Structure formats: structure tokens, C-alpha cells
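Page 47, continued from p. 46.
Same chain as before, 96 aa.
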Amino acid sequence: MVSAIVKATLKGMQFVMNDPAKAALIYVEAAPSFKGKEELMKKILANYTERTYKGQTTLGAMDPQRLANLQHFYKQQGFIEAELPVDQLYSNEFIR
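Result:
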């Protein structure tokens, strides 16, 4: 079941990456509380496409070094109390 959910999520992610503007319109249609905020959603999804999703060698794969850096930043900022071994925080098993 987890594999099926991940597969569907990655399919949606690929759709957003391919056409963030169209994905934003579909999102607003499905979430009426965002009606009138279509341009904002387009900017948000375009930002995710450029800054978060771009450059992945395998769609949805987690980068252990990036996660380690993020975890270190969170600790420095006081968002978390302790850093954990990164390999305990994620798995790329379900994207294969």
C-alpha cells in the first residue's frame, strides 16, 4: 500500500514539475478556499519545481547530505533538540 501511495505521489510531483501553472489551477479547483489565489499557487508550485524538485537524479529520492545539512540547521535554530543518524530518518526503498 505504501508503495502505491508513493507511486501516486511521484506521479503528481512529475505533473507539477512538467506544468506548475496547470497544476496550480487544478489544485485551486480541488481546494476552493484558494479560489482567487491562482497566481499565488502558480508561483508556489513554480518555486517548488525550481528550488526543491529540480536536479533529482531519481524522482523523489532523498539526498542524505542535504538532509544532514537541513537537520544541522534545524538544531542550530532550536527547532530540534538533537540530531539523529540520517539513515534512520528516511528510506528510498519505495521509489525503486
